[in-house]
Design brief:
Elements: H1 2-30, H2 40-70, E1 115-119, E2 126-132, H3 134-137, H4 140-150, E3 152-158, H5 173-184, E4 191-195, H6 204-215, E5 220-224, H7 232-239, E6 251-253, H8 261-266, E7 273-275, E8 286-288, E9 290-291, E10 294-295, H9 306-323
Parallel strand pairs: 2-3, 2-4, 4-5, 5-7
Antiparallel strand pairs: 1-3, 6-8, 9-10
């Protein structure tokens, strides 16, 4: 019996010792560890690393702001301060041939006129119709981007071979027959903007008659200057892997450029305004394929990339407003 009591005592004592030891371990674990002091040299290294990170973040922010302000057409506008800015060697978009946005489009001669509405929904917004072929359509990314600010409600009338005329081309036969009534019947437009590729023939008499009919509604007719032509070689040059923004000269000369017959006709029709946008595409003798680190064209058909169209959009809108003041 005494042996059993002794065993129980030591067993109890062992448990007590274990409990005390456990508590001591926990206390030691929770005890604050005295940190070794950091030397002045370590402090200086940490501060230098932090400064480098802050400088890099600030530089990236500044470059992003500069890119947003100077990409594309603003690089040709002295008022922006972008003409002498260096925004690196990257060119946007990376895949110009795929940089497009879909808009209502009549693709064949037997298809009905397709039209869509864009821009401001405000009551009293300026009613604008944009009419023509694919060289009217490629203005839309830019015009759509400024439409709300301009308070413009834009209706599109685009199609293969379509233009403002009383004698539609075969490629736009059905849609072309419906185009003039759409512009002259119902609520009148404030401005009718016409843009056609300079590569297309112009029936001067048929266009002139159609313009007069639209003018009778009180609408102001504005014919936009077409963009310059380009070539497969110029496109290949600016999309080559070794293209250098500062060192590589890609583009086409102005000498020998096909005449813009639609704009020339517009200058000879009373009351028609001409939307002047050529300064944002050409120098006196050269039309570059890359402007302000942006690809101007998506293809050899001289269709603007949506990126460049958006950068030139404010200048196109300004040209339309100026042309709409023509007496």
């Amino acid at each position: 019996m005494r042996a059993l009591k002794s065993l129980a005592f030591w067993k109890f004592a062992g448990l007590g010792i274990l409990a005390v030891a456990t508590v001591l371990v926990i206390i030691m674990a929770l005890r604050p560890v005295k940190a070794e002091p950091i030397s002045q040299e370590q402090v200086a290294r940490i501060e230098a690393a932090q400064e480098k990170v802050a400088e890099r973040v600030a530089a990236e922010k500044a470059m992003n702001e500069l890119m947003a302000r100077c990409l594309g057409a603003p690089a040709r506008d002295a008022a922006t301060g972008c003409t002498s800015e260096n925004i690196g060697n990257a060119v946007y978009p990376q895949a110009p041939a795929k940089d497009a946005k879909a808009y209502c489009w009549t693709n064949a001669g037997d298809q009905p006129l397709d039209s869509c509405a864009y821009g401001s929904k405000l009551k009293g917004a300026v009613r604008v119709a944009v009419v023509g072929d694919s060289h009217a359509r490629h203005l839309m990314p830019g015009l759509e981007s400024v439409a709300d600010a301009e308070k413009w409600a834009i209706d599109s009338y685009f199609g293969n071979g379509c233009t403002l005329t009383i004698a539609p081309a075969e490629a736009c036969a059905t849609a072309g027959a419906a185009l003039l009534p759409a512009l002259t019947q119902g609520k009148p437009y404030d401005i009718v903007v016409v843009s056609v590729s300079r590569r297309k023939a112009v029936d001067t008499g048929a266009v002139r008659t159609a313009v007069h009919q639209v003018q009778k509604t009180g609408a102001k007719v504005v014919i936009m200057e077409d963009v310059p032509t380009t070539t497969p070689e110029a496109i290949a040059c600016s999309t080559a892997a070794n293209f250098d923004v500062k060192a590589t000269r890609c583009g086409v000369p102005t000498v020998g450029m096909k005449a813009d017959l639609m704009a020339e006709l517009g200058r000879n029709i009373g009351g028609v305004g001409i939307g002047v946008i050529s300064p944002y595409f050409c120098d006196a003798d050269w039309c570059p394929s890359v402007i302000g680190n942006a690809h101007v064209y998506a293809d050899e058909g001289a269709h603007m990339t949506a990126t460049y169209s958006r950068t030139v959009g404010p200048y196109v809108a300004a040209a339309i407003k100026a042309a709409a003041q023509t007496k």
